[in-house]
Design a protein that fits this description.
It contains 25 helices and 28 strands. The chain starts with 7 loop residues before the first strand and ends with a helix. It is α/β, with parallel strands linked by helices. Strand 6, helix 4 and strand 7 form a beta-alpha-beta unit. The chain is elongated, with a radius of gyration of 31 Å.
């Protein structure tokens, strides 16, 4: 159970006096963002209380890790009730004890991580009593790394290191705190205001390395302790990484709200919640708002996917902190923002809704709520491996860029799935430690299933620029999966051909003919004489059969894989007219094939530097052949270096 946000509270009382206090407390809880249930023995049941269930163990076990428990009565009763379920503070429910007079409230379990300590302070304010804290860092007024993580919506990636840091604080050690980009602007100013004297906020990693104990706020999860935990130990140092928690934002708004007003209200809620815009992975609302200009503009401005749900879908979220009859009359559901946020962050494997980080917040003309995605790091034991659930990157390769991206991720210790169409592509990637290579072609439905089953958050399309059908399938699959989960599609662009745009393009003895498609290339070649060397692949080879005497004039170079060869033979390309080879091809190899086939025309696609275009251009120039270049489809996307940076920030 995460310690963030508003949660359900289950109250138990055992006497008439305790039941009366429980009833009064429930009335006051109605003014807060908490959801509550209160139980008492049947003879003491009052308004707002439920009869104590016969199987109390089933009630507690069924809600353990999902709700906080408040016992009004003796601490011993609470201990006996919860004993079968207690495991550790990272998964236990917050448990509190309140005496019958409401004078003292004690957080017994999961004080910091679960939020029992903060809840005790809140209960004390409602009852006019005193919260009694027994945790050492609380008693001594020292820095508590779990409290810091909770306040700033950060995930603790290593429990052992967190314990070591806490022990060091109590021993009087200085603790370095370094916040990496891009989270520095988001957290540094907030952190600096609250840090006790034992914590030193460092501006660079080098400054932090001076200290034995370090807390690093980072999107990366690398470094391994000798005992196998996920902190870094070097030269006697203990380094704990805190990972910014991912959130889904639910938003409701009035029709026609000004985009500036919606944005201002949304950013205000984020600031109050300690959440940065980079942590927001999805924006969700009801389907009535799917075309609301302000919401669409907000999502586009911050490059966050925007999804909507029907009222029926939103009602599958069973609990909200508050409902509105007016909103329900207009939309069909009593609370849009909380339901949308929790549904968007739902764990599709366990069917559990996301946990609220921030309940319904009302701003001018809009409401917003934030829900946390399930932790993907709590049980990690080292850098990400491709077979762990923390792998949320899928790279569609088939080009040099795809291979380079997979190698980059592996070098950074970042797990990823890499999809390649052929076994040859798999051989180029099989030695990458953090990559799981998927071999074989997939249609759109198969891609969508893979994204949803593996909970992929980032899909990188590094397929060949001419593989338009593949790109269309990937885009469509991401769009469909993105209706139910956060998934980002990124197109990785190939480097432009400098040679084809510079002075070399008209140099030498080779003429260059540029066309926009294979069909245009065929139409041009139909008006020529002389042999033709075709290197545009087997998929569109059928189009060349329209050339008169193509069996005599055309020579096809295709991949040395069964399907490509078989399809080429069926079309009439065989014997010396079919060259089955695996690249890459040097200038010398291209030149030798031009001479061997006596080709007057050399047909290629604008494959870029990585695709060997320069070698083809130079070979054509030396052979005196006309280079027929099929232009690359115009695309938008990111460069290789930009995509690498995106992966590095995961």
């Amino acid at each position: 159970m995460s310690g963030t946000g508003n949660r359900k509270i289950i109250l138990f009382s055992f006497t008439g006096t305790g039941a009366s206090l429980g009833r009064r407390l429930c009335r006051k809880l109605e003014t807060t963002d908490h959801i509550w249930e209160a139980y008492a023995p049947e003879k003491y049941v009052q308004e707002g209380l439920r009869p104590m269930p016969a199987d109390r163990a089933e009630l507690i076990g069924g809600q353990w890790g999902c709700a906080a428990f408040l016992f009004i009565g003796a601490a011993g009763i609470a201990v006996r009730y919860i004993a079968p379920w207690v495991k550790d503070k990272y998964t236990d429910s917050p448990v509190l004890v309140l005496d019958e007079k409401g004078r003292y409230v004690i957080p017994l379990l999961s004080g910091h991580v679960g939020g029992a300590a903060a809840l005790a302070d809140e209960i004390a304010r409602l009852t006019g009593g005193t919260a009694v804290h027994t945790t050492a860092t609380d008693v001594q007024g020292k820095f508590a790394v779990d409290v810091f993580a909770k306040e700033h919506c950060l995930e603790i990636t290593d429990r052992t290191a967190a314990k070591d840091i806490s022990a060091a604080v109590l021993a009087g050690e200085k603790i370095a705190l370094y916040i990496e980009e891009p989270f520095r602007d988001m957290l540094a100013s907030q952190a600096a205001e609250k840090l006790p004297c034992e914590v030193v906020l460092c501006g660079t990693r080098e400054e932090a390395d001076v200290y034995r104990y370090q807390v690093i706020v980072s999107g990366q999860l690398c470094g391994q302790r000798p005992d196998g935990a996920d902190s870094e130990v070097h030269s006697g140092s203990v380094i704990l990484r805190l990972k910014p928690q991912e959130a889904a934002a639910g938003i409701g708004c009035r029709k026609g709200i000004a985009p500036e007003l919606l944005e201002q209200g949304f950013l205000d809620v984020l600031r109050e919640s300690g959440i940065g815009i980079r942590q927001v992975k999805m924006i969700a609302s009801i389907d009535l708002k799917k075309d609301e200009p302000a919401l669409v503009r907000l999502a586009e401005k911050y490059d966050v996917p925007f999804v909507t749900y029907t009222a029926d879908e939103l009602r599958t979220v069973e609990e909200v902190t508050a409902g509105s009859e007016f909103v329900e009359k207009v939309t069909g559901v009593d609370n849009v923002c909380e339901r949308a946020a929790r549904l968007c962050a739902r764990n599709r494997e366990t069917d559990m809704d996301g946990e609220l980080i921030r309940g319904k917040c009302i701003r001018d003309g809009m409401t917003a709520a934030l829900a946390a995605y399930p932790s993907r790091t709590a049980a990690k034991t080292g850098c990400a491996k491709a077979d762990e659930k923390t792998t949320d990157i899928l790279i569609f390769a088939g080009t040099t860029e795809g291979r380079l991206l997979a190698e980059y991720a592996s070098a950074k210790g970042i797990g990823c799935y890499v999809s390649v169409a052929t076994e040859y592509g798999e051989t180029l990637l099989r030695d990458l430690e953090t990559a799981t290579v998927l071999t074989g072609r997939m249609d759109g439905q198969a891609i969508r299933t893979l994204i949803e089953e593996k909970q992929i958050r980032l899909v990188i399309d590094a397929t060949h620029p001419f593989a338009r059908a593949v790109t269309d399938n990937i885009r469509a699959a991401c769009a469909e999966a993105g209706k139910h989960m956060p998934v980002r599609y990124v197109r990785c662009l190939r480097q432009e051909n400098e040679a084809c745009g510079g002075p070399e393009c008209g140099g030498g003895t080779s003429e260059i003919i540029r066309v926009d498609s294979v069909q245009e290339a065929v139409e041009y070649l139909q008006r020529t004489t002389g042999n033709i060397l075709i290197t545009t692949g087997s998929k569109e080879l059928k189009l060349y059969t329209a050339i008169r005497d193509y069996r005599d004039r055309c020579y096809a170079r295709v991949l040395s894989v069964g399907p490509s060869v078989q399809e080429s033979v069926k079309l009439g390309f065989e014997g010396s007219h079919l060259i089955a080879m695996q690249g890459p091809f040097s200038e010398e190899m291209n030149l030798a094939l031009l001479h061997q086939t006596n080709a007057a025309y050399f047909v290629t696609k604008e494959t870029g530097h990585a695709g060997g275009f320069g070698e083809k251009l130079e070979a054509a120039r030396k052979a005196g052949a006309v280079l027929v270049v099929i232009g690359r489809p115009k695309e938008t996307g990111m460069s290789l270096s930009e995509v690498e940076k995106l992966i590095g920030h995961r």
